[in-house]
Amino acid sequence: MEKKPNIKLVAQKANVSTATVSNVMNSSRFVKEETRKKVLEAMEELNYRPSTVAKSLKGKDTKVIGLIIPIQHKDTSAQFFISLSNGVESVLNNEGYRLVIGNSHENLSSELDQIDMFKTQFIDYVDGLIIAPTSNIGSEVNDSWNIDYPVVYVDRKPNTLHNVDTIYTNNYFVTYEAIELMLKKQRNKIAFISGPIDVSSTIERFEAYKDVLKKYRIDLDEGLIFEVESSFQSGYEIASKLLSNHEIDGIVVVNNTISMGVFKYLKEQNIKIPDDLSFLSYDDFDWMELTEPAITTIRQPSFEMGEAAARLMLEKLRDRTKEPTEICIESSIIIRNSL
């Protein structure tokens, strides 16, 4: 089936950027006559007719913000990012803005497709983009976009040396502090279980684990470190492997979905928490308060991070010259009975 002509295909045929095509269509910036002619010829050959709605909006605020989040169907991170999205929308709605949401499914290729959509088909419809990036997203994204609207990163920091607008939480310090509570209870064989350690949030949690052990002069045991798929089943299976092969007195799980599987296995084996071992989890979901014992966990301010991302976006829209800003919204330790 032949592709319907769009701004991206015109740009490819004319060997220019999508922003240049947009500038030619809307006469919004100076374009060399030779380049302008190439774009118009490409539009004619492809029989591309730009949307009259988009053209009428050009030069005005559309009051639409894009949001890309990484939700996976097996992972309860969906609840975190839905809460974050609600935070974004609550602030934008008060200012008369609407939100368009795309899902990268925690997949880099899918994320790049979403970004491509916002910089091509939607380039004339959105005023800005908020994104919780997957792994390996970095300077190549912003450098290759060549678009006019602001971008705000949220929850995860991009892999870039450039200063960029970012809303994040104190993953390193709050994880360090929580594990230190275990160590002060004389736990010294603490396992660390995580999903893929490939975004800033999980990387910082792992660094905290290593550093706090070092402070207490406890050798790092690679056999107690597990990086697994973010699923209930993987949590259950890794708990079985861990308890069958190692003597431990503490478990730190920095992924809520995995944590459920681990906790189920511990209960099935009649392991007494915290008498036999301490248990620390991430994200304060309702089920953690209903277990026996109730689980000590790290609560992330997902809604508040969404609000902050939206406020920062609005600031950037009001002042495009504003220097990039990094804002930390602090997470907190919810002390219960599992340590």
Automatic annotation (TrEMBL):
This is LacI family transcriptional regulator. GO terms for molecular function: DNA-binding transcription factor activity; transcription cis-regulatory region binding. SUPFAM superfamilies: lambda repressor-like DNA-binding domains, Periplasmic binding protein-like I. Keywords: DNA-binding, Transcription, Transcription regulation. Residues 5-59 form the HTH lacI-type domain. Pfam families: LacI, Peripla_BP_3. It comes from Bacillus canaveralius.
